[in-house]
Structure of Ribokinase:
Amino acid sequence: KKYVKYVQCACMTAAESLTTRLPKAGETIIGHKFFVGFGGKGANQCVQSARLGAKTSLICKVGSDSFGNDYVDNLKKNGISTAFVGQTTDAATGTASIIVNSEGQNVIVIVPGANLLLNFEDLKRASDVICKAKVVVCQLEITPAVSLEALKMARASGVKTLFNPAPALADLDPQFYTYSDIFCCNETEAEILTGIPVGNLEDAEKLVIVTLGAEGCMMISGDEPIPKHVPAGKVRAVDTTGAGDSFVGALAFYLAYYPTLSMEEMIRKSNCVASVSVQALGTQSSYPYRKDLPQDLF
Ligand SMILES: Nc1ncnc2c1ncn2[C@@H]1O[C@H](COP(=O)(O)OP(=O)(O)OP(=O)(O)O)[C@@H](O)[C@H]1O
Ligand SMILES: [K+]
């Protein structure tokens, strides 16, 4: 199989301003630091997989603007195929404008922009990549119906599906459960999602993983219905931003390249990768490369 993994996703430019306090409505204040980074859950996950050595292709849409051009360069630098990264003049590249005060409190405005223009036609164009992948990973930062369609296309070709229901939707279409082999969310998302009728969970996915920050993860599967705790190692965390995406990206890598490992072992290794990411600042900037990790992870 040519593409061992494909992520269908959102790309966002994150512009962050640091100030002593958050401005009030109508107020202008002076901050002391500004930086721009690359984000979006799907893209983050894809970058982490690629840095572990996975062959990846991203299906997404950015604007025909400087943020979009920079994002395409960033993906290429990470060795990710951009054959299905569309650029549109109908919307701007997705952005997250973030203001953080000295207590670490923040206000964030996300404008999804071009991400919401990714459509069924784009999926059709990429169908060869989707259907020949080993693993397809989807999230909810694009139009949910498009994510669901990608999962269905993958499933129809026997491709393993990993779904990360983030950001969480209270009224998630129950079909997402049916078309996900692995359903991986964090505690907050699990809380929002538990409004789903239990009947849907029963005829659903083969495995549910809930990530628990420093505590690692809980896993529960059809084969092993008793929840199992897979702890993360003790590390000195400096910035946990993006840890969830590092975990999902790592898990996708192990599913594609080490399919004979037990799920527990894949989760243990993915915890190790994500726990490295919390020891560095930022999101993609904190994701480890294969060469910098203990070699017993491979
Ligand atoms: N303090 C920590 N120490 C060790 N590992 C951690 C720590 N925080 C997170 N991790 C690792 O990262 C994984 C994901 O963390 P978490 O559950 O906080 O995800 P998240 O809430 O989606 O994170 P974020 O939204 O900040 O990206 C955990 O399962 C664990 O493997
Ligand atoms: K980090």
Summary: Residues 42 and 207 are 20 Å apart (CA to CA). The two ends are 20 Å apart (CA to CA). Residues 197-204 have pLDDT under 50 and may be disordered.
